[in-house]
Amino acid sequence: QVQLVESGGGFVQAGGSLRLSCDAPGRTFGTFGSVAGWFRQAPGKEREFVGAINWSDGTTNYADSVKGRFTISRDNARNTVYLQMNSLKPEDTAVYYCALRRGFNTQPTGVRDYAYWGQGTQVTVSS
Questions:
Q1: In the structure, what pLDDT confidence band is assigned to residue 9 with cuts at 50, 70 and 90?
Q2: Which of 39, 77, 97, 104 has a CA-to-CA distance to 45 between 20 and 30 Å?
Q3: What is residue 26's predicted lDDT score, i.e. its pLDDT?
Q4: Pick from 53, 65, 46: nearest CA to 110
Q5: How many whole angstroms separate alpha carbon 2 and alpha carbon 98?
Q6: What whole-number distance in Å separates Cα of residue 116 and Cα of residue 105?
Q7: Rounded Cα gap, residues 5 and 85, in angstroms
Q8: Is 80 exceeded by the pLDDT of residue 33?
């Protein structure tokens, strides 16, 4: 079983920044899947795709709602994936989840496209 652990969530004012991290303790991302994704779920809404990164070559894909504001990166040495969130808006408030899928394609954006999930970390943006 693959365990994913998110961290870095918290409270921030609109316009501020946060960086989320996703670790796979005792494992390496390349072993279990080549694409790490970030999703979010706001109260009363469905879980939605935020972005993804191909672990092998760093190719990324982002939802239109976060393009230009959010950046996904990975650190091979630390075995960690990051979600840098800038210019945060109140509508970015949600629980953010890290996920993994096998393969190399960052285009799939559905929840069912990802096999492994973390427990999530809360991000709250105040106006």
A1: very high
A2: 104
A3: 75
A4: 46
A5: 12
A6: 16
A7: 18
A8: no
